[in-house]
Design brief:
Blueprint (H helix, E strand, L loop, with lengths): L1 H7 L1 E11 L11 E10 L8 E5 L1 H4 L8 H5 L2 H9 L20 E2 L2 E2 L9 E3 L23 E3 L18 E3 L28 H4 L9 H6 L5 E5 L2 H9 L11 H15 L5 E5 L8 H4 L6 E3 L1 H27 L1 H7 L8 H12 L6 E4 L2 E3 L16 E3 L5 E2 L31 E2 L1 H25 L2 E3 L1 H10 L2 E3 L2 E3 L18 H19 L21
Parallel strand pairs: 3-8, 3-9, 9-10, 10-17
Antiparallel strand pairs: 1-2, 4-5, 6-7, 11-12, 13-14, 15-16, 18-19
Length: 533
Amino acid sequence: MQNILRNMNIQYKWLLTLLVFGFVACESDDDLTTTEEVVITSGTADFSTYVALGNSLTAGFTDGALFIAGQENSMPNILAQQFALAGGGSFSQPLMNDNIGGFLFGGMPMTNGSFGPRFYFYSDVDPDDDFNSGPYPLGVVPDMLDFSPESPTTEATTNLGSSFNNMGIPGAKSFHLLANGYGNPAGLAADPPLVNPYYVRIASSATSSVLEDAMDQNPTFFSLWIGNNDVLGYALTGGDGTDPITDTGMFNQAYNGLVATLTSGGAKGVVANIPDVTSIAHFTTVPHNPVPLDAATAGAVNSAYAAYNGGLDAALAFLTANPLTLGALFPPTSDMTSLELATAEMARRKITFNAGAGNAVVIFDENLTDLTAINAGLVPMRQATEADLLVLTSSSFIGTLADPGNPLSVNGVAVPLADKWVLTPEEQEDIAIATAAFNTTISAAAQQAGLAFVDANALLVEASDGGTTFDEFLLQGNLVFGGLFSLDGVHPTARGYAFIANKTMEAINTTYGSNLPMVKAVDYPTFYSPMLP
């Protein structure tokens, strides 16, 4: 009998007691009590050995770092706890050494990559505290965020062994999961590192791959949420070209290879697609117009831009008088003539500041027409509009001085913001095209392999557009208080991960006939205390 139950992956876990109060007229006034036994079943799935593959979203990354409390509330760990109700086995994670986050390399904090401590939220702001500068001094974000004041204690070169069920590797792209040597500690000394320190800690050898180490565990069930970084890296760098979007052919080959290998031993699983990264808080928090100016400063800045604005007028007059040059620089479209296009762009490039709040920052835009042959001073710059998305980290740069000795050299005002701080509409379109193509690959692979599928894209867009309910809570996409995104504006809070875990279990239940119970929102926080032990 025990073998039969084990093979069916059925465990009797929950007992629901229904009390029916009343009396039976003329016969008895005793209470009637019935006890109903609820069976939690895995259906056609087998959760006995669950392995999770992915990137930071799988690892439990939150508040800008990986740390113990966040890992304990990772989506795979939440799933594993529910899988245990239906025959699932133990689930191990490569925990960091502390609740600070970040890495040491040779005993010193790693500075050659994004491996610093976590952000934390606090409500008692001391304006005289030197440590209160925080990562967002502009005030775009409430002055209640800061880096942990503690130093990391996790040594990147200390290998923990490779038998972990959570194989989420922060920073990994799709093809990284198949790359041999991605965990070679020799690559940590490069600037930036040539390998991934999160995988260095758990790689079985200097030449192994994440996928190989995952398959060594003979998974009976897997989750795969990969591809976010294939577009996110480009987005986080403002589309400046330093971290290009993964080639579609490379993504298709990598993703289909992952699914084929993971299912080669008969394992079933669940996959999730890629959210629209431009809808997350990291790109929707900093407004395009955060600059306040007094009348004197606005006048001084306008005087400085007078020559540039006048040059645009002169360039338009030149182009009007030279139709061949006009047509070459501004080819007509089906909707607009060359002159109409040129006139519209010249107007868009004009830079004007007003006294008061709400002035738009000045940005470089490589998509503007190159007019330097007409006037060398007409560099491709303009003021941002609502259609532009400023990365969250720009809030620590806007308003600083490019030249400490020149009080007028204000970044974002007198000095245009570089490409890395802004996603223009054209760059956002590149992201949208790639995301759609990658998600087509993911959904097709899931359908062909008969896997459960989670539309994470639709879930996060819904939350960002107005909110989505999770039990009695409304999860929204705004930074700090929305409840969905953690303090880095990219990764979910613990409650956000629990919400995604529930949606994942719904997909699993639908596909495999299981009846995994949902977790409760109230059991998962939106903030971690700065005082975590």
